[in-house]
Amino acid sequence: MSLLAIKVAESPVKSEGLQDELRAFDATKTGVKGLVDAGIENIPKIFIRPADEVAEESNYGHSNLQMVSNDVFKSAWHRVLSNQVGPRISVACFLAGVMDPAKVYGPIKELTTEENPPIYKDFTVNEHLAKFYSKPIGKSCLDDFKLKN
């Protein structure tokens, strides 16, 4: 079964049922992969959070994917209710390890053309980190890397 075949449960579960479902899920020790491997077709209600519960959540430090994709993938400031046209895409980026401070990053060359020129300038890890850490929490450094048109 592919992840695309999984359907979202109809509504969030009430808190008393949520605790029972959480205990039952935890007792199986199978995790999400175990659910998928078992052929589950509905996302368990324990994974669904009401929109008002997550409305104030923000993604900080989220600009990397937007810069390298040349705005093909936009970074979201807040969780949104997706529209009814097409799927909503979420991408999680986890960075760790040794980063080469001399390596230059920027928009992926295959995503830029004369008709779709780069929106962001190339940058090094040190340049990006300097801008990122100089901003207040919740402020993006995207504008610092935009090319002037």
From TrEMBL:
Domain of life assignment: Eukaryota
InterPro entries associated with the record: IPNS-like_sf
Protein name (record): Uncharacterized protein
